[in-house]
Amino acid sequence: MVLPVALGFTAAFLFAASAALQRRAVLSAADSDSEHRASNHRIPVLWLFQRLLRQRVWLAGWTTNLGGFACQAAALHFGSVALVQPLLVTQLLFALPMASAAVRRWPPLRDWLAALAISGGVALFLSVEGAAPMEGDPDRGRLVVALVVAALTIAALLQLAQNRGPLAYSALVAACAGICYALSAAMMKLTADSLISEGVLATATDWPGYLLAVTTLSGLVLGHQAYGSGSLSAAVAVMSTVNPVVSFTIGLLVFGAVPSTEPGPLAAVAVAGVLLIVGASGLAHSPAVRMETRSTATHGVYPIRGNV
């Protein structure tokens, strides 16, 4: 178990480092927008991507992200999903000091406890048998329904985020990114199965592969927007929570998974929910997180005129 655990923690660290580097690149791109054109749009980072692509910091963040995926794939090869998935949640614990470094303030004890509560809650949820079930033959009709519901939910959350404070705005956008990444995981599962069983030509003429590209790109854009408009640690916490919850819902709706009704798993889910609520409340009221949010909102891509 030593090798998959080490690879899992390494992947979590690389994902957190990637998020921090991408956030730094977004802030730099926003500062270069002297005419404040990006702030006129609902997702300002979309209008800054051309500048992001020319930044070495952003390219370093993307390379680091690829390294994280490689470590995650290796960890899944040597260990089980039930072992590796909870380990990846620790990226929040790595992201917390990286985010605090931007405001030159070491995270206080309450922030560490809040991050531990969130990480523990998500890890406990993922440890429950069938928490992110995507095995078996999916019902494509239900998959289309799930995609429509997800798209409407994302549109509603983005609309709800408008004119909210930077912390709430960043959290809502991060939730949208988490939904996209959960959909991307489902599309990846379908595409991989199609490649193995039907070959390249059949996969190229089927729609899940194209939706994989759309959901992954959408998650990337929304993730950058969340990182660059509020708190990095809060955005990572929201994405780390929403992703497995939506994956669980997709597993029930699309892949025919049956939730456990045993007392042990139900108790674990209840405890996980309490930990998540306590941790989220702690981060939301953290002075360090609020200071980081104010700094990012002033210099980042928070879509209020004059703040970019």
TrEMBL record:
The keyword Signal applies. InterPro entries: EmrE-like. Residues 1-16 form the signal peptide. Keywords: Membrane, Signal, Transmembrane, Transmembrane helix. The chain crosses the membrane at residues 83-103, 112-131, 143-160, 167-187, 207-227, 234-258, 264-284. This is DMT(Drug/metabolite transporter) superfamily permease. It comes from Saccharomonospora xinjiangensis XJ-54.
